[in-house]
Every structure is written in structure tokens, then in C-alpha cells.
Design a protein that fits this description.
- The structure holds 2 protein chains of 2 kinds.
- Chain A is α/β, with parallel strands linked by helices.
- Helix content of chain A is about 40%, strand content about 15%.
- An 8-stranded parallel β-sheet of chain A has the order 5-4-3-10-9-8-7-6. A two-stranded antiparallel ribbon of chain A has the order 1-2.
- In chain A, a hairpin with a 2-residue loop joins β1 and β2.
- Chain B is an alpha/beta fold.
- Chain B folds into 2 domains: about 210 residues, FAD/NAD(P)-binding domain (3-Layer(bba) Sandwich), CATH 3.50.50.60; about 140 residues, 2-Layer Sandwich (D-Amino Acid Oxidase, Chain A, domain 2), CATH 3.30.9.
- In chain B, strands 6-7-5-15-16-17-14-18 form an 8-stranded mixed β-sheet, sandwiched between helices. Chain B has a 7-stranded mixed β-sheet with strand order 9-2-1-13-20-19-21, with helices on both faces. A 3-stranded antiparallel β-sheet of chain B has the order 3-8-4.
- In chain B, α2 packs parallel to α8.
- Chain B is globular, with a radius of gyration of 22 Å.
- The relative contact order of chain B is 0.18.
- The chains are: A alpha/beta, B alpha/beta.
- Chains A and B meet through α1 and α2 of A and α6 and β14 of B.
């Protein structure tokens, strides 16, 4: 497609323009080697990484981080596992020191079992981090009002969930996501979590979402490399479909050519 | 020599086997007395004069082998490893009893299968686990069957798989039995000796490795024409991480992603050991967990090993509260009898792993490095041992496990020795 990588058709994250509309996670792969290969195959240009449980104060994850950094892609550290505003803010600051990036995927656990984000703590933490110059990518639910608060604070990117982390259930509430898309047309909207199949990713892009972020769907596939490739294609297809302008959905069947076995006055169009 | 003056164990203190003296066996050096180092020493002591060097005490408490739960579960592991590792693990399982017979003292070993269980809310994890197994040698079991197999299990565990061929052993019994066997042999075991790799070769306690050959001649008052080791076997695990030569090699080929698999890293694991005489499990039980497998492995005398976490970190601190809570709650949720169990220890350690999490034997002239056994030390050790013996004997490829896993062995020798 001629405009595939035109400026208009590039993903915008706080002014950084990217060709790939897939952001990918770095955990749960069978090995770091498989992770490296799957990420390369997926074509993703942004890799998220979690510092929690690695004792980042002592650079405990250094060897693993190097395996990610060796890919030469943009890093998006996250605050996964943080339960309080204070924890998340401290983790963000540490990430900035370690990886020399202002980007932070802000994630605050509100419920330990399904890792649903805590929207109130999220807004508080986002406000602090934005005031410190961070470029905050908040992982949120599809709640319109919380989204508005985040945008008003200065978030240029929103990362609403499709469904809870790791469930692979896809987009459970397309209505809510579409409402977010329609109400914030200028905000970069990345569907984060719940993407299980390439078709879920396609659906997200077809809806006009700017990108998807996923991890488990590729990491836990039997063949993560092939699944990475599948997502790459699905995302490209979804984006192209959005740009192409889908036909309008109809309630009745409408043959694209006249049927020859019925008289013309029986044909509805 | 410094070591003789510093109160470290000397040759005179070591038991020697008179019968072996005077045979002038070729000398071989083994660096690292963890699982692989000890197994190699025992297997080679008939044909070689073995020199075993280790930074640790003979209890081996710093080795990954000391911490491990010593599961021998090739099929269960296949959910997250290659088919080749599974096949090698199956072969290794069959080799264990033969090796254990060579030891002076008995070691707990069983092959009664393992039970994989999940709570209702995690049954999709079990389904995914089942779909990832690389063999169909398992049986889906109902809750009634599970109760028959393990009567004390939490009745809320509704879903299960039985993997009949899985096994386990008691790792600390094994390490002790191997230490005892080695102590009763003519093997020269230098414990508490720091080993480092330099551009001019290995240094042990600041002395060139080869200098220990002279000492042995002196101490045994026997003629010995050897002025170098026939082979040096490097089994230091993560102790080899600082080996600059290894890293330099990997950097040279940094543009090639495959070469980066040679970078050795530590993967943190945390394990709980508890004593619960009132809990009776016949076989290891693995509980589905979204991030890593948690085993409850019953050993002897009411001892249970519960582990292990798997965290991409080289953090060497003691176990964290979160990990301890996860392990203990997993344990209690499987069998309420663990509530009053005695916690014997909660320990952490690092598993040596290459980037592909698969083991490698790297040959460079007369140096053979065996490393990267990751979470599969006990699963694969007998196969790694056999492969090393094959290399030392110069046997043909047909006898080699590289038939199954070609990348198991890399020969970097300028002129292959044999």
C-alpha cells in the first residue's frame, strides 16, 4: 500500500513516530532466546518490560534486560505489580534511571486476582509522573470518565483494556472502546491486555484503535515465532481495513449481483 | 603452596585408595563440585586421577544442585521446553538408578509419576498446560481418582492430570552420598578454592591449575610423567559467568543472535523445605500457577520440598515475602495438613542458564565446559554425563546424544582432538 508508512499512517507516541502498531511484552516466553526471535518476527518496535520482583535497586535483572536491549528497539518500562501510588511512582523513577527513558507504562493493580487496574490510584500517579516530565502511558479500563481525567492531566496516550490481563478473551466491550475512540479522536489509543488472537488485534485496529499491546498471546503460543508473525499480519490487515473504510453493515442480505432466477421487480435494489 | 599453609585441606588429610596408587592414571581436572562435577568425578575416577576443585565446602551449599527440588519430570517440563530436552530427560530418568548404585550410601529415588492439579478458576491454565505437553503419555483424572491416588488433597481440586513416568530423588542425600563416595576414593578434592579463568589459563587459589599436578606427585611420592591435565572439565555453573574468554567469544559474534545464546545468566529460584509428618503424599504434586510451576515434592521422613519460583533476576538476596507467601499458600491450598508443618528453611539461589535455556557442552581443545542446565540439572545430568564420557573416549557420533539434540555439543577446537 502506497501510504503504508506515510506520516499519517504511523503510530504516534508522544511525538515518536513508529511504523509498527504492535507493542509487545517480554515476559513468560520459554526462554529469552525465543523471546528475542518472537519479538523480531512480530515486527514490534516497542518492547515493554517489568522490573518488579527482579530487585531492580541492585540491577538484579541486568542480564535479562540486556537480552531485550540487544534487540535495539524502544523500551517501555512498566510498573506491573505495583499496588500503591507511591510504589508506582518510585518504580517509574527507577526505570527512568535504569533505561534512560521518560516513557512509562503506568499500571496499578487494583485487584490481585485479575490484575484489574485501580483507576483512582492510576489518576493520582499519572498526575505526579506527568508533573515530573514522564510520558505516561496509563493502563486503564474502558471507563470514559477515568479516560477523560487522564487526558485532562496531559496523557497523550491511553491504554484501555480489551479484557483482563492474560485472559485472551479479546474485546469484551466493543461499545465502550468505540466510545473512547470516538470521544478522544486525537489521543493515541492502544488496546492493552486481553488480546488472545490475531483476530482480536485486527478487530481493535478496524475500530480505529491506533495499536495493540500484548504479551501472553505470543509468549504462551505453542510457536511464539509464528504467532508473532500472525499478529504482525493481523495488525497490518486491521489498520488497512480501517483506512480503507469498511462497508456499512446491513441487516438484510444484499446480493452484489442481480440474481437471475427471480424477476427484476422481486429484487430489492 | 599457599593452600597448605592456610589451613585448607591438604593432600595428607585426604583419604587415598592405595590400590589405585602407582597406576599412573592420566590426570583430569574438574572445576566445580556441584551436581555435574561430582557425577563426573565418580564416573572418571577409575580411569583418571581426578582433581576436583571447588570454591564451596563439600556440602555444596552454594551450588544450584543443593537448592533444587530434584524433580525428574521430562513430560511436565515439556510444556515449556523443547521436545529434545524432553527426550533427553526421559533417557536420563532411565540412567539414574544405574548411577545411584555406584554410590556408597543409598539415595531416595522414586518413579511413581506426578499429579498435576488446578483449582476451578485456574482450569484454563491446566488446559493450556495439557495442550503444550509434547507427548500424550498422561491421563486425565477425575476428582474421585485424584482422591484415590492422594487421599489428603484439597477436595476443591477438581481437575488433574496424572503423568505416570515422572520421578524424583532427594538432592541433598545424593550430594552427600557422592561426597562420601569421593572421600573414600583416590580423588583429590580441593574444596574452598576460588577458581578463576585468566588469559593464561585457570587459576586456583591464585596458583596455576597445572601447579597442582606437581603437588600431587610430591604428596604421593610416585613418579608421574604428566605435566598437564589430560582434560579440564569446567562444571562451575554460574561460577563461570565471569569467565572473560566466554564473554569475549560471545561479544565477537554479537551480530549473530544465535551466538548470544552463549551468554550465561542466573535465573532466580526460591524453595521452601518443610517437615510435615502428618501429611502423606505418594508422589510430587504440581499446582498450576500462572507464572511458574510449583511442586510439592514429598521426600523421606516427612520432608517436603516446595518450589520453585522462577524470576528473571540475578538477585542474590534471601527469599522475598511475596515468593514465600506464594509457595506456602500453594502448599496449604493443596493439603491443609501443611498448616502445622515445620518450616526447615526458605532458600534462594540462581540457576545457570544460557539464553535459550538449554544446556551446552562446549569443547575447546582439551577444555570441556558443561553448563546452562537451568531448571533441568537433575532432569538431564545423567545424559550430560554420558555425553561427556563419549567426548573423552572419542566415541563416534552414533553413540552421542547429539543425534537427538545436535546443538548439545559445540566444538570450538582449532584442531579437533579426535
Amino acid at each position: 500500500m502506497s501510504n503504508e508508512h506515510s506520516s499519517k499512517n504511523r503510530l504516534n507516541i508522544y511525538g515518536t513516530k513508529l511504523n509498527s502498531r504492535l507493542l509487545i511484552g517480554s515476559s513468560m516466553y520459554p526462554s529469552p532466546y525465543v523471546m528475542q526471535q518472537a519479538i523480531r518476527t512480530s515486527g514490534a518496535e516497542v518492547v515493554t518490560l517489568s522490573l518488579s520482583r527482579q530487585n531492580p535497586q541492585a540491577s538484579g535483572g541486568q542480564a535479562f534486560w540486556e537480552s531485550i536491549q540487544s534487540l535495539g528497539l524502544l523500551l517501555l518500562p512498566n510498573t506491573a505489580g505495583c499496588h500503591s501510588v507511591n510504589d508506582a511512582v518510585n518504580m517509574a523513577r527507577m526505570s527512568r534511571e535504569l533505561f534512560q527513558t521518560d516513557w512509562i507504562k503506568l499500571e496499578l493493580v487494583g485487584d490481585d486476582y485479575n490484575l484489574q487496574p485501580d483507576p483512582i490510584a492510576l489518576v493520582k500517579a499519572a498526575e505526579i509522573l506527568l508533573s515530573e516530565g514522564f510520558k505516561v502511558l496509563p493502563y486503564c479500563t474502558d471507563d470514559l470518565v477515568i479516560a477523560r481525567h487522564l487526558v485532562e492531566l496531559g496523557c497523550e496516550v491511553l491504554m484501555p483494556w480489551g479484557s483482563p490481563i492474560g485472559t485472551g478473551k479479546g474485546i469484551l466491550n466493543p461499545y465502550a472502546l468505540q466510545a473512547l475512540r470516538d470521544r478522544f479522536p486525537d489521543v493515541t489509543m492502544i488496546v492493552d491486555s486481553g488480546i488472545g488472537l490475531p483476530s482480536h488485534a485486527s478487530q481493535s485496529l478496524e475500530m480505529g484503535m491506533d495499536a495493540v499491546l500484548l504479551n501472553t498471546a505470543v509468549a504462551k503460543a505453542k510457536d511464539p515465532l509464528l504467532m508473532g508473525l500472525a499478529f504482525s499480519k493481523a495488525i497490518e490487515a486491521g489498520r488497512s481495513a480501517y483506512l480503507a473504510g469498511p462497508m456499512a453493515e446491513r441487516t438484510a442480505a444484499s446480493p452484489s449481483t442481480p440474481t437471475i432466477d427471480s424477476p427484476f421487480w422481486h429484487q430489492s435494489t | 603452596m599457599a593452600m597448605l599453609e592456610s589451613g585448607k585441606p591438604s593432600f595428607a588429610e585426604r583419604p587415598t585408595q592405595e590400590a589405585k596408587q602407582g597406576q599412573n592414571k592420566p590426570p583430569i581436572a574438574i572445576l566445580g563440585a556441584g551436581l555435574m562435577g561430582r557425577m563426573l568425578a565418580i564416573s572418571l575416577m577409575e580411569d583418571y586421577q581426578v582433581f576436583l576443585f571447588d570454591k564451596d565446602s563439600k556440602e555444596g551449599q552454594q551450588s544450584a544442585a543443593y537448592l533444587a527440588a530434584a524433580m525428574l519430570a521430562p513430560l511436565a517440563e515439556s510444556a515449556d521446553c523443547s521436545r529434545e530436552i524432553m527426550q533427553l530427560g526421559e533417557m536420563a530418568l532411565a540412567l539414574w538408578p544405574g548411577f545411584l548404585k555406584r554410590l556408597d550410601t543409598p539415595v531416595f529415588f522414586q518413579q511413581k509419576g506426578s499429579l498435576i492439579v488446578a483449582f476451578e478458576q485456574d482450569k484454563s491454565d491446566l488446559k493450556q498446560f495439557k495442550s503444550r505437553l509434547k507427548s500424550s503419555d498422561y491421563k486425565v483424572v477425575s476428582d474421585a481418582e485424584m482422591e484415590q491416588m492422594e487421599p489428603g488433597l484439597n477436595p476443591h481440586l477438581k481437575s488433574g492430570l496424572y503423568l505416570p513416568n515422572e520421578g524424583q530423588l532427594d538432592n541433598r542425600q545424593l550430594l552427600n552420598a557422592m561426597a562420601s563416595t569421593l572421600n573414600n576414593s583416590d580423588v583429590f578434592w580441593f574444596d574452598h578454592m576460588a577458581i578463576e579463568s585468566t588469559s593464561s589459563g585457570f587459576q586456583v587459589a591464585g596458583e596455576p591449575l597445572e601447579s597442582f599436578l606437581n603437588e600431587s606427585i610430591h604428596c604421593n611420592s610416585r613418579s608421574n610423567s604428566h605435566n598437564q591435565f589430560d582434560w579440564v572439565l569446567d562444571c562451575r555453573g554460574l561460577g563461570a559467568q565471569a569467565d572473560e574468554a566466554l564473554k569475549a567469544d560471545a561479544c565477537d559474534m554479537a551480530s549473530n543472535i544465535a551466538s548470544s545464546t552463549k551468554m550465561l545468566r542466573g535465573v532466580r529460584g526460591e524453595v521452601v523445605r518443610i517437615r510435615a509428618p502428618g501429611v502423606h503424599l505418594t508422589r510430587p504434586v504440581r499446582l498450576m500457577h500462572p507464572r511458574y510451576p510449583i511442586y510439592i515434592a514429598p521426600k523421606t521422613d516427612g520432608l517436603f520440598v516446595v518450589g520453585a519460583t522462577q524470576i528473571e533476576s540475578e538477585d542474590t538476596r534471601n527469599p522475598t515475602v511475596r515468593s514465600t507467601l506464594e509457595l506456602l499458600s500453594a502448599c496449604f491450598s493443596v493439603h491443609s495438613g501443611f498448616a502445622e508443618a515445620e518450616i526447615l528453611g526458605i532458600e534462594s539461589g540462581l540457576r545457570p542458564a544460557y539464553l535459550d535455556n538449554e544446556p551446552k557442552i562446549i569443547i575447546k581443545e582439551r577444555l570441556v565446559s558443561i553448563n546452562g542446565l537451568f531448571r533441568h540439572g537433575y532432569l538431564l545430568a545423567p545424559v550430560m554425563l554420558q555425553q561427556c564420557l563419549t567426548i573423552l573416549k572419542g566415541s563416534t557420533d552414533e553413540e552421542s546424544f547429539t543425534q537427538i539434540m545436535p546443538k548439545l555439543v559445540e566444538n570450538h577446537s582449532v584442531k579437533p582432538r579426535r
